[in-house]
Design a protein that fits this description.
Elements: H1 2-41, H2 54-62, H3 68-81, H4 87-97, H5 104-108, H6 148-157, E1 205-210, E2 214-215, H7 216-229, E3 233-238, E4 241-242, H8 244-253
Parallel strand pairs: 1-3, 2-4
Helix pairs in contact: 1-3, 2-3, 6-7
Length: 256
C-alpha cells in the first residue's frame, strides 16, 4: 500500500547496510580481528596459550584483501608480543606482506615510543604493569583485550598504583634529584567537597589525561569504571582521538 512504501524503503535501506557490513566482516575482518586479539592477549578465545603466532599471522600477511595498514598493525602486534625481532626477520615479514619500502618507517618509528622493535643484542627493559585477571567480565570474542588504562583507573581509585611510577597522586610526595619535593595534586580526591549545589553529583572525580591521543576503547573504560564503582566518576581526555589509521600515519610522520 502507498502509505507503507516510505517505511518499507527505510527497512530495505537498513537491510542492505547490514548485509554489506556482514560481507565485509566475513570477507576478512573476522580473521583479522581474531589474529589481533590472539596477539594482544597471547591466548586464543578459549584461553589456551598460543605457542606459534607466526602460523596465524602469515595467512593475513599474504591475503590480498587485507589493507597495508592492517598488515602493518599485525606486524607491530607480533613484534611487541616478541619484545623485538631481528632485522632479518622484519625484512621477511615486510616481504611476505608486500609492504612498500616507504611504509617501513611506520614499524621502525614505533621504537621512538619506547618499544623494542629491531633488536641487535640486548633488549631495553620496559616497565609493564601487572595486568588484572578479568575472567569473570563479559567480553566479545573479537574484543577480548582490555586497555591498560582501565587497570590504571581502577588502581588509582583503590590507591594501588606503583609509587615509583605514579608518585603524584593522593598527596604523595616524590623527592626529585635536586632534593626538593616534586609537585603533587593537592586537591586530588577532595576538591568535589567544595561544591554545595544539590544538583551536582557529589562524588570524587578521577581525571585521566593521556598524552598523544586517546582511543575509543580507552574512553569506554572511563564509562565502565564509573558505572561499576558508582561512588567515583572517571573523566578521560587527551589532545585528540586516535584511530588505527591515524595512529600509524602519526608514526610515519615521526621520520619527517
Amino acid at each position: 500500500m502507498p502509505q507503507y512504501q516510505k517505511e518499507l524503503s527505510k527497512y530495505s535501506c537498513h537491510l542492505h547496510l547490514a548485509e554489506d557490513c556482514m560481507k565485509q566482516y566475513q570477507g576478512s575482518v573476522d580473521k583479522l580481528c581474531k589474529v589481533e586479539q590472539d596477539l594482544a592477549m597471547g591466548t586464543d578465545a578459549e584461553g589456551e596459550k598460543i605457542k606459534d603466532h607466526m602460523r596465524n599471522i602469515v595467512p593475513i600477511l599474504l591475503d590480498q584483501n587485507v589493507s597495508t595498514y592492517d598488515k602493518i598493525r599485525i606486524i607491530l602486534l607480533y613484534i611487541i608480543s616478541k619484545n623485538g625481532i631481528s632485522e632479518e626477520n622484519l625484512t621477511k615479514l615486510i616481504q611476505h606482506a608486500q609492504i612498500p619500502q616507504a611504509e617501513k618507517s611506520i614499524i621502525i618509528n614505533m621504537a621512538n615510543l619506547g618499544m623494542n622493535i629491531v633488536i641487535d643484542g640486548m633488549r631495553r627493559k620496559i616497565y609493564q604493569m601487572n595486568r588484572k585477571e578479568r575472567i569473570t567480565e563479559q567480553t566479545y570474542q573479537m574484543s577480548r583485550w582490555t586497555p591498560v588504562a582501565k587497570d590504571i583507573m581502577e588502581d588509582a581509585i583503590e590507591d594501588k598504583l606503583d609509587h615509583k611510577h605514579f608518585p603524584f597522586l593522593a598527596g604523595r610526595v616524590a623527592t626529585s634529584n635536586l632534593g626538593r619535593s616534586a609537585p603533587t595534586s593537592a586537591r586530588y580526591g577532595h576538591w568535589h567537597k567544595d561544591r554545595s549545589q544539590a544538583n551536582i553529583k557529589n562524588v570524587p572525580r578521577l581525571f585521566v589525561v593521556i598524552i598523544g591521543g586517546v582511543c575509543f576503547s580507552e574512553m569506554r573504560c572511563a564509562y565502565e569504571v564509573t558505572q561499576a564503582l558508582k561512588n567515583w566518576e572517571v573523566i578521560v581526555g587527551s589532545s585528540h582521538i586516535l584511530t588505527p589509521e591515524g595512529f600509524l600515519s602519526d608514526l610515519r610522520d615521526l621520520s619527517s
